Structures are given as C-alpha cells and as structure tokens.
Automatic annotation (TrEMBL):
Bilayer-spanning residue ranges: 305-324, 336-356
Subcellular location, principal: membrane
Name of protein: Magnesium transporter
Localization per Swiss-Prot or TrEMBL: Cell membrane
Keywords of this entry: Cell membrane, Ion transport, Magnesium, Membrane, Transmembrane, Transmembrane helix, Transport
Recorded family membership: Belongs to the CorA metal ion transporter (MIT) (TC 1.A.35) family.
Length: 362
C-alpha cells in the first residue's frame, strides 16, 4: 500500500467512526437521544434511567452528574430536555439549528460551547473536485450537575471518548468540566491529524507542479485544496479566543483547576493554526509557481510559432514577388530560374531555422 494511502487510513482509524450509536441504551425522551448516563464519583451507574430520573437522583444526593448525548434533535424533541435542565432559550436555538461558529458562552452557572470537529476525506487521487475536509458540529451544555452534548453531522463521535473517560474514574470524578475539556481536547487533537493529512496532499501537488509531467490542469487541484483549507480554517481559527477565555478565566462550572488543561488544548490549537497558515502560504507559492510555469510555456509556444512564421515568410515573399503580373522581371526566361528560386528559398529557410535553433527558439 502506498505511503499516502497508509497515512489516510491511519487518520481515518484515529478519527473513529462517523456516527456514535455504540451504546444500546436509548432514552424514551426521543429518537435523537443516543444515551443518558448517570455518573457518581467517576463511576458509571450500571442501570439505565431516563434523563428526568437521573437528574432527580443527582440533585437529591448532591453527588455526580448526568451526561445526556443527542444526535441532530428536532425542536420538539429538544424542548422537553431544555425545560428539564433549564437551558437558556438562545443556546437552545443555536443547538437545534446548528451552523454556528465555534464559541463559548456563559449563561449564569452554565457554559454553552460550540465545536466544529473535522475529518479528513480519504481519496485515491486528488482532483479539481475532490472533497478533502468534512466538518460537523458538537454543542456542549455544561452545568454543575449535567453535561448535554448535541452532535450534528457525521464527524465528532463521542462514543470512544466516553469509554476513555470511563476508564479514568479519577478524571471523570472532577465533574462536567472534565467532559468539556475532554471534548475540546479530542476535537483539537483531530485538527492536528487532519492538518498533517492536508499537508501531505499539498506536498503531492507541489511535487507534481515541479515535475517534468506537470500539466496545466494542476491549477484546479491547487484551487480546490485552497477551498478545502479555507473550510478547515473556518472551523479552527474562531476557537482560539474561546479556549483562551477558558484557559485564563475561571468560568463556572470550569473552575481554576481546569485552566492548565484548557491552556494545553489552546497550545495545540495554536500549533494547528500556525500549520494552516503555513499551508495556505505554501499553496499561494505553489499556485504562483504553477502560473509562472504556464506563462513560460505559453511564451515558448509563442516563440516557436513566431519562428516558424518567420521561416515561412521567406518563401511567401519570394513567391509573392514572382506572382506579380509584370512582363519584364529578372530570370523569367532563364531555363534554370525555377529550380534556382526553389533552392534560394530552401537555403534561406535552412539558414533562418538554424539561427532560431541556435538561439533556443526551436
């Protein structure tokens, strides 16, 4: 298997499945509910229970939190959940309609965060219409005793993340803020993987542009990469300020003890942003180099056309002179006049052709 395909398969495996339906327990609140789990002291409650019952248990005991996961809920399906957990109407509207910029907003004692997970689209060969980056959305409502995750799109599966957190009860026992950090960390780590895969595609295009088999169709592939890189940048760049707020300000329920964790995520995001910026600059350079090569090729074609036009002009001129209907013209009645003129034209064309070849025009 070629190195490019190995890299793409590795990225695909790391990013995980497209749709998270790994947990069989489904809540009766609606078909959009993937799962509803109660955690106490970082340990998952073994019995499945509806969101209302789970939230009642948590608030009655004062321990643990509820993690409710949903996938593309409708307005009607989400209305009951919003009322049960006391979610702000503006955040509810954003969660249902989707297509939001990455952000973190605070509503009293609740945080509402929007992330745009990205996935690398595997392809055998990059073309002018290849899709390189796909994006989804994850909305996270984080309260003192609950976490509600709402996913839109095929990317951003949280099943493996949930299992990883359940394998670390000490971290999960820190509360809903630990889940918020884990989601942000997974999204940003996937950004790094996608950036590396896109960088590989850029290297392939760059090599093709400067190879002997470079074609004028490479401009379409470069432009498509720039479009996909722009989509990737729209998902990554707006997240820097929200992560900076989480890393520098104690926003309840993410207290000061989580600032170092979010600071680490912000550093990873800064690396991704720098890599995207360098990739964009490199694509600009590759595109300019390709256009320069096309211009040089066109100039060479024009020189060749001009050289052949100059060669053909000589016999055209001679034939034009002897095509005039004058009675008194030199060599008209000479026996060897016709072959002499042909030889003269051939000699002149040969001399001019040799001069153009010597100067690199042909």
């Amino acid at each position: 298997m070629p190195i490019a395909r190995k890299l793409r398969h590795a990225v695909r495996r790391t990013l995980g499945p497209r749709v998270d339906l790994s947990h069989p327990a489904r809540s009766p609140l609606g078909s959009s509910v993937v799962n509803c789990v109660l955690y106490e002291d970082g340990v998952r409650h073994p019995a499945a229970c509806p969101a209302r019952e789970a939230l009642h248990r948590v608030r009655r005991s004062g321990r643990g939190f509820v993690w409710l996961g949903l996938h593309e809920p409708s307005t009607d399906e989400f209305a009951g959940i919003a009322e049960l957990f006391g979610l702000h109407p503006l955040a509810v509207e954003d969660a249902v309609t989707a297509h939001q910029r990455p952000k973190v907003e605070r509503y009293e004692e609740m945080l509402f965060a929007v992330f745009k997970p990205c996935g690398y689209v595997e392809h055998e060969q990059l073309t002018a219409t290849s899709e390189v980056v796909e994006t989804g959305e994850i909305m996270v409502f984080t309260g003192t005793d609950f976490v509600i995750t709402v996913r839109h799109g095929r990317h951003g599966s949280l099943g493996p993340l949930r299992e990883a957190l359940e394998a670390d009860p000490d971290q999960l026992a820190k509360g809903p803020a630990a889940v918020l950090h884990a989601i942000a960390d997974q999204v940003v780590d996937n950004y790094l993987l996608v950036a590396e895969a896109v960088q590989h595609d850029i290297d392939v295009v760059e090599t093709a542009v400067f190879s002997a088999e470079a074609g004028r169709g490479d401009a379409g592939r470069i432009y498509q990469l720039k479009r996909e890189l722009l989509e990737f940048k729209r998902a990554v760049a707006p997240l820097s300020r929200p992560l900076e707020h989480l890393a520098t300000r104690p926003l309840a329920p993410a207290g000061p003890e989580f600032q170092p964790y979010f600071r680490d995520v912000a550093e990873h995001l800064a690396r991704t942003t720098e890599q995207i910026t360098s990739c964009d600059a490199l694509l600009d350079s590759v595109l300019q180099a390709h256009l320069a090569q096309v211009t040089v090729a066109q100039n060479e074609d024009m020189r060749k056309i001009t050289a052949w036009a100059a060669i053909i002009a000589v016999p055209t001129m001679v034939c034009g002179v002897y095509g005039m209907n004058f009675e008194h013209m030199p060599e008209l009645r000479w026996t060897y006049g016709y072959p002499f003129v042909l030889g003269l034209m051939a000699t002149a064309c040969f001399v001019i052709h040799r001069g153009f070849r010597r100067n690199g025009w042909l």
